[in-house]
Amino acid sequence: IMGLTASYGTMSSDDTDIMLILDGIDADGTVATVKPFIGYFYRDNNCLGVRFGYRHMDGNLDAARYDLGESNDVSGDIPYMDFTSNSYSFGIFHRSYAGLDNRGRFGLFAEFEFQITNGSSNFVFDDLQKRTFCNNTQLKLAFNPGAAIYIFPNVCGTISFGLGGIQYNTVTQKDASGETIGTRTVSYTHLRAHETCADLV
User: Fold this and answer.
1) What is the number of other CB atoms lying within 10 angstroms of the CB of residue 163?
2) Residues of the chain below pLDDT 70
3) pTM above 0.70?
């Protein structure tokens, strides 16, 4: 089998207010991901494969003002901020399928995936006066059950749900000169939203 998952989303805000605390928000951002994969059925209804991924994120905040009310006497302007992130991933997955009808058009599958992600991000604060860089590494073991429908004899649409998994993240933060100024590690279990894709078999 071979297939592809892709997504693209944008966000924009022009002079927006949030709960009378933030106002005059001018911001925009984009998120784009591409995840091709290929797999081989080593026996009936059992597939072993690899998945590659690329994700790009960027966003900026041009202007905003906060006001916590007269009683708190706290207000001010939020300076310009810009964020850019790029990450690459590689994963190994195993799928087990179970047919629901005699013609083999509908089925369910259970997928286990081990994924490694590495990327970097760039954060600019206060109109280039402050700049930080981050290197991010993530290890993830996930369980993704789903359903498959054969639209045509060799084209299958799938939908999967990330019910849970184990994740480990490490982040190294550097200043504009390249000096390490901090590190952070986090491990946790997680829940994930669904995804859809078209598989060619």
Assistant:
1) 12
2) 15-25, 63-78, 127-129, 190-201
3) yes
